[in-house]
Specification:
Elements: H1 14-18, H2 25-52, H3 54-58, H4 67-70, H5 75-96, H6 98-116, H7 124-142, H8 152-176, H9 180-183, H10 192-216, H11 230-245, H12 253-259, H13 261-287
Length: about 290
Amino acid sequence: MRPKQWTKNAAVFAALIFDRQLLRLNSDLRTLAGFIIFCFISSSVYLINDLIDIESDKKHPTKRFRPIASGQLSFSTAIVFALLFSSSSLIAGFWLSPVFGMLETIYFVINLAYSKWLKHMVILDVIIIAFGYVLRVASGVSLINVERFSPWLYVVTTLLALYLGFGKRRSEISLLNSDAIHHRRVLDKYTIPFLDQIIAIVSSTTIIAYSLYTFSAPNLPADHSMMLTIPFVLYGIFRYLYLIQVKHAGGAPEELLLTDRPLQITIFFFGILILIIFYSNSFIQISG
């Protein structure tokens, strides 16, 4: 089920936080339900992906320890739970919101196509991953009555996901070297210099897009205090770049998020600053 990768589904909370509805219980509960549903639908995708890739995973230096590849989880059991998770989460998604259910279905279908075909198509493989993040954000939007959510966040989400995705491809090539093609066919179509150019373009564009969001989005404070968050975004992007190019990490961005202390501290203070900028007046009114 890869619970470490559930951190990706936190994108569902973007609308709740950035539309300043964090203090509304109904919006909180609906978004939390959406997050849980996405965790189960994504886990079904991971199970299906591991079933498809079982032979290549057995030859991978780290993926061979996954439950299905290592034989700890039987093939038939994995199929049963993949069907159970996918069907139950799709039913729950449509019950929660028809639009949410539709977006969840699109996510599921596209990821099935990714597991079978699209992950072998150069560049498109990472674009599909980025689209998955956008679908998560859009799903969160569908669960609440959006008042001030900025479209800029879709742009930033797309660019940041591309940055992480191409960084992961670079790390895989660096880790596997000449054996990379035997583990992921698409890696034969990438080179480290090519990926470094893409990463440079996407990272700089991400910084520009986020910076534009902080002073041009209509729902932000008039004093432009949101620009105070830019240094944290800069450091987070540069830190990840350091990890994949100097430390040769980044094969699993979600694991870096759970293990790299500087990244964790950066995200923590970024989140605190967001809460102060967006919700300080509300907190003062509540305490008063």
